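The protein record passed on for reference:
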Amino acid sequence: MKLRLQPIHIHQTIHEVIGNIDIQIKKRKGSITTHLDASHELIEGDQLHITNVIYNLIDNAIKYCDGVPSVEIFTRDEVNGIAVSFRDNGIGINKENQRKIFDKLYRVPTGNIHNVKGFGLGLSYVKGVVEKHGGHVEVESELKKGSTFTIHLPYKYEKEN
């Protein structure tokens, strides 16, 4: 994966993704709220890949919700970068599966339910993009109580030699 690095206003990117995914959330009568509290939101990154990461995390929050989806997006300053968290009220992920969800082609078993389409590439892609930008991703989740995915991105990406 080659990155085309440029300055990215992460708050603007979040708003653009929300605008593009708005029809999906409205179709389910859901909501997306933002708490964009980071005071320094300019990072160096690949606009396309960072946009795809944000889209993927919001899309998953909508898809993996049995009821009316509610997604909250938070940003906060960190010492050398920014944290962006996506909290949902979805079906949640048990501890055993949390260790595997970032593996390529892994999908959390849902029994005989096949209402969510996908190939198990989304979270592997998210992890790969975030790490390629010098950051990391983490998840907190509890079954039937939802999940929070947090991506940590440095302000300036250190290029590999």
The chain has a mean pLDDT of 88. The two ends are 15 Å apart (CA to CA). The chain has one domain: 5-154. Strands lie at 5-9, 31-36, 42-46, 70-77, 81-88, 136-142, 146-154.
